[in-house]
Amino acid sequence: MDRIHSHHCNLNIWAHLPDEVWNKVANIYELMPGWKGYTDGIPHWFGQEDDDVFIQASVEPSGLSFYAQMNKSEWDSWIERFKSEATKALGFNIGEPEDGFH
Predict the structure, then answer these.
(1) Is the pTM of this model over 0.90?
(2) Domain range for residue 71?
């Protein structure tokens, strides 16, 4: 059985980017598997913080930040799909700054 763990990821989608970029990000949110909507302005997938499985995102100085609680293989698949969809929609390579994405 694949156990549930917490996961965290920052992406190079910065708070200072124009509204045009953030509107595209919001569209990507809605296309991703498990989309549940916004709660108090925070996007959620699969569930909320008090559920066993969930993903949430926030905009931080370190970039677009995701926090998830789910099994590793599902998380890896989900975040890779998000990066791929965001790269296509935004027109620049999306990834983690610590991996060289700026």
Answers:
(1) yes
(2) 4-99
